Amino acid sequence: MGKQSSRPFLMTRNLHPEVQESPIHFLKKNIISNEFFYIRNHFPYPNIHQGNFEVTIEGNVMYPYHFHLAQLRQLPSVTIDLVLECAGNKRSKFSPKVHGEQWEDGAIHQGSWRGVPLKDLLAITGIGQGAKEVLFTGHDMGEKGKSPHASFSRSLPIEKALHPDTIIAYECNGKEIPYKHGAPIRLIVPGWYAMASVKWLKSIAVINHRFDGPFQTDDYVYYPHQNSKEDSFPVTKINVNSTIQKPLNYSKLKRGENLVRGIAWSGNGPISKIEISYDNGVTWEKAIKEKNGVTSFYAWESWTYLWNIDKPGEYVILSKATDSTGSQPLEPFWNQKGYGYNAVHRTHVKVE
Fold first, then answer.
1. Which of 109, 158, 204, 321 is the most buried (most CB within 10 A)?
2. Prediction pTM value
3. Which residues belong to any copy of the Oxidoreductase molybdopterin-binding domain (predicted)?
């Protein structure tokens, strides 16, 4: 019998459609290999023939165009290291509980994406007057609400679509994008939750109105009141956040020095500091950022903290990240669909 692998694997959250979570607590590298890339699908996998694949740009443009994959590969490209986080990451931590995939901490991935800036493609097609949004439609489709043949479609404001870091990607981590993650072409929107980065990209349309598809105006919307849709607003940028990777929750530790490590990230720019508390937030001490070779504006920060504890007992270790807009709150912003959880991370331990 051959030697079995000791590596952790994805945790299944749903089978139809497939939803799987990354073992984020066990991963030490800052670029996560594709085999540990979490999976979030809304529909069954589409049937795609990559040999002669193309994406269409149409709508309010001067020169509608069909870009073949081979053409995209010949255009000037950029490579961006970035976090892709499901908007429902950490949903299981909300109280009261909310419906949806009960993610823990692993609906997140950091990878190196290569592709063509969307603005370069739109420069080729030209943009007509009055353009307000750019609509992206994937090949994946299925039943949604009353529609038996709904496609996954999302739009971006024209300003975000034209941002130089919004790209039409064809590689992830130096290889072709894996089929389960949107091959052969995927939209990548750095700094926004991953629902914006439409997979299996089929068509792009410049439009003069606000798109109101179900994945834009029903799902991926913050509803802050339990029994009302008042004061709702769209899910866009990734909230400042952190995760303690070590020690694991409810671990037993020995007295003396113990290493605490984790990651921190934000869609609003670089992390300015990470702090640790083990007295329920009365006092905070700075963690140390690691030099990890990833310097992208959109990448997470790896950090460590050496905790010297001599008194036995039960403790809750808190981690709090801060970016240019503020710090993680002590309590989450509760919303009906469980998006954007970013309260300080809590890990319970017992020191013996």
1. 321
2. 0.96
3. 42-214
